[in-house]
Amino acid sequence: MTDRELENKVHQAFERATPNVLDAVLSQCDQQKGNVIPMTKHNGKKRSWTRVASLAAAFALVLGLGFAYYGYQQATAEACVISLDVNPSLDIRLSKNETVLSVEARNEDGKKIIGNMDFKGSSLEVTINALIGSMVRNGYLSDIANSILVSVEGADPAEAASVQKRITDTVRSLLTTDSFSGAVLSQVVDDDAGLKELAVEYNISIGK
Description:
Elements: H1 3-17, H2 22-76, E1 78-85, E2 89-95, E3 100-105, H3 108-114, H4 124-137, E4 147-154, H5 157-175, E5 183-189, H6 193-202
């Protein structure tokens, strides 16, 4: 056997031992290429929507905190002071959303009227009803002593006048009983520093 013949036999044996997989490999590459591209785009969209969702959640949180702070301000900021004077002298501090912040006695009789009642967070109507009822029960309002002075002091005159009218109507209806009919005097008091100093000095309400 010549060298040329030997070389041909080796070449033939090598071809038979090595499978031709080029076409299969290229076919699989084409298939994988079709699957990979959409996945890359999908991940990008997912990351984009995740970021948008995060920003929306952060905005909603900030907005919610803003509303909560506004509500807190409305509930705790003082809008006006309502004074009730018979002989007991009382100050009712009202918030912007018309809930009671506190009821303070200006004298010993006023402390007796309040007793152990806590009006913080109560509505104005409930507070007025309870205080007038206590004055009647304790004898400060009767067929002999049947007049009450209602004074409203606030930074907004229009708002103060509105509160004054409502309280006057409420107190007048409460003082109209089977045994007597009370008189209600009412006024709107200007936000005056001098009046406040006099009220503190003589331990009386601003209205009186």
